[in-house]
Amino acid sequence: MGIVPLERALQLAADVDLDLVEVAPMARPPVCKLMDFGKFKYESALKAREARRNQQQTVIKEMKLRPKIDPHDYETKKGHVVRFLKAGDKVKVTIMFRGREQSRPELGYRLLRRLESEITDLGYVEAAPKQDGRNMIMVLAPHRAVKASAVAATASRGGPRERAAEESGAPEAGETPEAGETAAAGETGPTAETSGQ
What we know:
Elements: E1 2-4, H1 6-15, E2 19-24, E3 31-35, H2 37-54, E4 60-65, H3 71-86, E5 90-96, H4 105-118, E6 123-132, E7 135-142, H5 144-157, H6 159-167, E8 181-184, E9 192-195
Parallel strand pairs: 4-5
Antiparallel strand pairs: 1-9, 2-3, 3-8, 5-7, 6-7, 8-9
């Protein structure tokens, strides 16, 4: 529409029952747009929610063991590690030493190596075992194929909800309202530039 007075731009917005929104305040003259601001805020929130849903969040689970662990307890803890890796999460395995056990770190190292060899099909060692005071720490991460299948399983669980949203007639995230654009000459300036329809 070009440069028009601010009062005229406000009158145009009132005539078509839209809001006059400043989209580029630093431009000279400032650029304004005629739009339904409530609908714009709703669509922005929808886009932000969609972006958060598609975002990968790295979760690190922790499993604590002792060097003199019972075989059954070891199998139970290994089962938890396997479940975490299948879910696509990283696992921090901590061996806790107490008293004289600290003089035998090779026991903890052997236990971590055994665990590593038993889960090679699901994950790999991201951080090698290292002594950290009274503890020995190793970080396991899932293979990409395992992580991809976990993400696909999570996405398939959300499928019915997405279909319900489509059937309810909710507006698409990328749609923008039909509106003209306006550029105001300034807050106190007598003119505004409008463009659009």
